[in-house]
Each structure stands twice: as C-alpha cells, then as structure tokens.
Amino acid sequence: MKMATEQEALDLLARVGVHYRRVDHPAIWTMDDPNAPKGLPEVKNLLLKDRKSDQFYLYLVDNHRVDFKSLAEQLGLGHSRLKFASEKELESLLGVVSGMVTPLALVHDTDDQVKVLINKSLQTMPEISAHPNVNTATILMSYADLVKVLAAMGKVPTMIE
Questions:
Q1: 2, 27, 96, 115: which is deepest, by most CB within 10 A?
Q2: Rounded to an integer, what distance in angstroms lies between the CA atom of residue 112 and that of residue 97?
Q3: Residues 24-44: tens digit of each pLDDT
Q4: Structural domains of the chain in order of their starting residue, each with its CATH number
C-alpha cells in the first residue's frame, strides 16, 4: 500500500472545508515523548483487531485507560480478545506506522475494513488533535470538523464509554 502523506491529509481538510490550526514540532512517537509540545489536547489513536480480524480505529482522550474486555462487550464481541494491530497491519490498512496513527489516514481504508470508535469524552473538548499523517506536526480542529472529515470518508463513528 502507498504510505499516507501529509499533503493528502491537508488536501482532505481543504476539500471538506475544515478550519484548523497547525503546530509544528519535533517528531513525537508517544504522548510521553519529551518532544511532545505542551498544551495540546492529549488523545490516543489506536488500531485494534479482534480474533475474527475485525479492525477498529479507536480515538480517545489520553488519560483514559483502555479496558479491552469492557470495550469488547460494548462492541458485542463476546469473549473476543482485542489486541493492537501489528506494524504490518497499520501500514497495509492505513498507510502509517506506529506514532503516526491518525483519523486522517482512514482515507486509505478504501475497502471499509476499519470501524471507527470514538470515546464520548472527545465531544466535550474545545479542540481535538490529530497528526496530518506525519508525527512532526499536529492539526487542531473541532469535534464537529472531525465528524465532517469522517463523513467525507464514508465513516460513521460508534460512540463508546
């Protein structure tokens, strides 16, 4: 698969008419990275899968711990074990590597294999953050604009606790 690019993320935002603020910074790989700029909304972006190879993109506030058992129950997966997607799966499904996972890369999910899950807490944040397919910049936008971007990609998120 072709790797996701910053330009395609910015083009998507322009096409949808999203107003955003951009913050450039040194490469950050995790929210604990010492290079992470202070004062940005702290969110997690995870690509998960279950035993049946269902794929889930989970977007949540960073201070929330992911309870995989509870999440599987919320999704009606029964006793399925959720786990992190591999690096190879990240690349093949979204065209990104660990540390660059972003809702803007979902445009690469052309076969609609990835279900989008959004933690309800994101709805109340004044701004949310996302990488523009690179980890040397952060895009800040409203939750409403995120929903517009997802809709433009044909994604309807499932809200989770």
A1: 96
A2: 19
A3: 998 888 777 787 778 778 888
A4: 6-160 (3.90.960.10)
